[in-house]
Amino acid sequence: MKKLLFQFDTDTYPSVFDTVVGYDGGADHVIGHGNLTPDKVSALVQGTIFTRAPKEKKNTAIFVGGSDMIAGQALFEAVQKHFFGGFRVSVMLDSNGSNTTAAACVAKLASSGVLAGKKAVVLGGTGPVGQRAAAMLSLEGANVTVTSRQLWNAEKACEAMEARFNVKLSALAAADFDARAQAISDAHIVIAAGATGVELLKPEHWQNNKTLELLADANATPPLGIGGIDAMDKGIERNGKIVWGALGFGALKLTLHRACIAQLFENNTHVLDAENIFALAKQMA
Question: Fewer Cβ atoms within 10 A, N terminus or C terminus of the chain?
């Protein structure tokens, strides 16, 4: 019985990255569908749940992806609304790598120091990875602030994560280097989760900060989000702080992503979202 992974993507073209990891995670075939919205998935989901005998349904699974976290979450929920009784297949949400990347990043930080009770700042935190990282830090007991160039954008992201995870986040506008340096002035933990190739902090903005303990940068494309660190940094000490680069925790991200795909084919009842993906990441870190 072939293991079939149906890739439901909210973008026009299903992610090549997710397709490759789907195969590496154990799928025999990955079938991609793009431009999907909640109103378009009914027939596709029915095709996955009505075609195989109960004991064979574990060999069919759905992966929800795309660049838009909000759209992905809506699609993920819409898929599950078509399940009933034993007529279901396992499903995973990882829009823009948000859950696996954020989980790997925060899990590595947790392996390097204490998160509970600490002040954490997620710079450029309104994208998929930043939002999920902020939520995971908060779930670990950190007091989390999300920054963006525009306050309304940070507030919108915080509201979405608060509603989804029942956490409390703070929003802050930080449009330039000085504002971001001020935002982290009394922080213990910093994650840079801005757009690819955008530097958010220069070395002088963090190297002499006496409160900072842990830093992580989710950007692997030069210039990095945090100047003065290396994308390959794996929990090394720089200027008295423990630092993780994007490629440093990226190995865990890929291993985690593959492990989640493998789990989808263990049975037909797995629902993999931030919480259980993060729990697995902490076991693997």
Answer: N
